[in-house]
Specification:
With 169 residues, the protein is α+β, with helices and mostly antiparallel strands. It has helices at 2-20, 153-159, and strands spanning 22-26, 29-40, 43-44, 50-65, 74-83, 90-99, 107-122, 125-128, 130-139, 142-148, 161-163.
Amino acid sequence: MKTFLRFLTTAAFALTLASAALAVEKNGLSVVVNKTTLENNDTRGTGYYSDRINRTQGLKALIKNTSFKEMPEGEVVWTILVLRWGTNTIESFTGTEKLKALKPAATTDMVIGKAETGGYKYYGAAEKDKTEWQVVVKHAGKETIKLQSTTTFDNLVKRAIKRPPAKDD
C-alpha cells in the first residue's frame, strides 16, 4: 500500500510539472518553455498574518535542433505580460536574445525575460500578480516557431501598457 501511495504521489507531481511546461516541435526545432523565479524577495509583513510577495519572474527555454542539418544563428523574441492583481492593469515586457547556431541534435538552455511581480499572502490565501508569456524563435527574420501560455495572449497584448524589462544587476 505504501508503494502504491508513493507511486501515486510521484505521478501526481510529474503531471503537475508536465502541465507547467509548454513544448512545441516544428520546423526542425523542439522548444520547451517554463516559468521560473529568478529572485524571491518576499518579506514578512507587520501584521500577524500578512506577507509581501515580491519576485522577479522569467522564462527558461530549452531549444533543440531536431533536424538532420545545422540550424543557423537566430533570435528569440520574448514577451511577458503581468496581470496586476486587484486592478485591470496589464504590463508588457519584451526583449530579444541571440540564439546560437545548433548542430543536429544539439540543445541549448536559455534564461530569457525578466519581470517584477508582487502581491500579498494573508490568512492562508494569496493575492498575487499573474504572468502570461509568448516566445517566438526566428531565423533570417522569419518565424520558425511560436509558443504562448494562453490562446488569448494577442488580446491581452492589445490592452497592455509597455514597460522596459528589468535591468540586470
